[in-house]
Amino acid sequence: VADQPLFARVAFIGIGLIGSSMARVMRRDHLAGHIVACARRPETREACLKLGIADQVTADYAEAVRDADLVVIATPISTNETIAKAIAAHLKPGAIITDVGSVKQAVIDAIAPHLPSNVHFVPAHPLAGTEHSGPESGFAELFQGRWCILTPLPNTDATAIEKVSTFWRKAGSKLQTMQAGHHDKVLAITSHLPHLIAYTIVGTADDLAEDLKQEVIQYSASGFRDFTRIAASDPVMWRDIFLNNREATLDVLQRFTEDLTALQRAIRRGDGDALEKLFARTRAIRRSVIDAKQA
Amino acid sequence: VADQPLFARVAFIGIGLIGSSMARVMRRDHLAGHIVACARRPETREACLKLGIADQVTADYAEAVRDADLVVIATPISTNETIAKAIAAHLKPGAIITDVGSVKQAVIDAIAPHLPSNVHFVPAHPLAGTEHSGPESGFAELFQGRWCILTPLPNTDATAIEKVSTFWRKAGSKLQTMQAGHHDKVLAITSHLPHLIAYTIVGTADDLAEDLKQEVIQYSASGFRDFTRIAASDPVMWRDIFLNNREATLDVLQRFTEDLTALQRAIRRGDGDALEKLFARTRAIRRSVIDAKQA
């Protein structure tokens, strides 16, 4: 039938910036017959009804996933194992389970072992976000032109992968499939290390004496400001990312620290040639980013 | 006379992004009767004439400053002492000398001792810029709504300060006066450390194996991208900033490194509470930046 939505019934476990943006895409493109939002906090549930992004709200995992064709887990990573255990016995046979976590191997390890064999797990990571949190901060265009990386297991059902892919294409995303461990390594450099650095530098500024801190804020447009935006991202989400991509993050952090020490030494010794050489090299990377249409 | 421009004759020593943007403001608001651009490279001189931002071009310092009412030194900091020595004997009595350097104490030390006592030196630092270089990259709106920090010496002529201030107000800048050493300390945190960190992280990525590097560029929108923009700033200009604000930069870098080590330890030990606490604290700083209308 032409009017059949992609998923008759969708359950969101957790509905913040990412979940609510996905729900908005489903509303806009009529991809879901019925949307259930599961949230712990009453304010979040009320907001979902008020925003019209869910037909039904609940705090109960079992009630949320009952009869759902698609279950989207969109909570901080540390909750995933508990959620997987709680929903496992209530999933509809043939249901598709997906997630939006920024780390993939740890998420797979937390969720996959608990799911029954008659459902399909398609791990996904949309590379999109803002520094804002909560269902009110979502918008349907969030994923437009952005990458979504799928990290299916070798035995994942092809039809389930295709249905999840269809959703992300409708959301405007470019799709890429990757092995989970490799995803975690790439993201450790492109996303986790930058966030770690930004959190650190903003924390360093926060530790300054109050009057100096006020001046740093006042003149923040000269570089510092860009870091404050990154360092305003959701604290619990990012705590969980670092705890769950520990090895890859510490590995790139180690390389970064070595490079920073070398630069520190060049400054201390007044080695202008070394500085200029590095700065010219990094300028070339910017051109590559622009050429890759990521700027 | 109503039609009298602010400066009858202006000389730019160096005319890249900042100098050419200042010249454009002078053209737009009729603030200069005659503009001379002094540049070492023939292509730069040709560009100035072609862009119409100078009436006259030269490679000769003495010729450039002859009879100038305002001399703007807008070259990388390392050239300042040589320039000061070269122009000193040719300055018009009563001329105003200003600069646009990102470090102020070192610039004062390089320029002030060489100037004759019958001219006025007004050091300035417009907190504005892009990652692009050269006279073609300038635009008159660059300084609109941005801070310009003046660091005059205790004995600087008030009328000269006021004339330079008038120019920056016409350019749309908000003005602030500061002691040079304090300026360097504040900028070490808001600008120099962020650039140092950005250069380092982009350099770390550049050292990756070629295939991984391509993926980092492809997925750079998830945080890394913001650093590549900062790390694309002019290499010679930034080399000189670090060499000339060495103490303040190394001091904040030391604090940053300590904080990063603490964060690294929290990740390695799985100390989620410490991570969440820091990340919540940095989010508050972002709100201060937004409240200060710097976002």
How would you sum up this structure, described in words?
The structure is a homodimer of 295-residue chains. The first copy, chain A, is 52% helix and 13% strand. By secondary structure, the first copy, chain A, is an alpha/beta fold. In chain A, the strands form 2 sheets. Chain A has a 6-stranded parallel beta sheet. The first copy, chain A, has a 3-stranded mixed beta sheet with strand order 7-8-9, covered by helices on one side. In chain A, helix 2 links the parallel strand 2 and strand 3. The mean pLDDT of chain A is 95. The interface between A and B is large, with 90 and 90 residues.
Helical stretch tally of chain A: 12
Q: What is the topology, as strand order, of the major beta sheet of chain A?
A: 3-2-1-4-5-6
Mean pLDDT of chain A: 95
Percent in helix of chain A: 40-55%
**From the structure provided, what is the oligomeric state, counting identical versus distinct chains?**
homodimer
Total strands of chain A: 9
Largest interface: A-B, 90 and 90 residues
Structural class of chain A: alpha/beta
Largest sheet of chain A: 6 strands, parallel
From the N-terminal CA to the C-terminal CA of chain A, the straight-line distance is 42 Å
What is the 3D form of chain A? elongated
Provide the succession of SSEs of chain A.
Answer: EHEHEHEHEHEEEHEHHHHHH
The parts of chain A where pLDDT drops under 50 for at least 5 residues are: none
- Rg over CA atoms of chain A: 21 Å
Strand content of chain A: 5-15%
Structural key phrases:
homodimer, alpha/beta, three-stranded mixed β-sheet, 12 helices, 13% strand, elongated
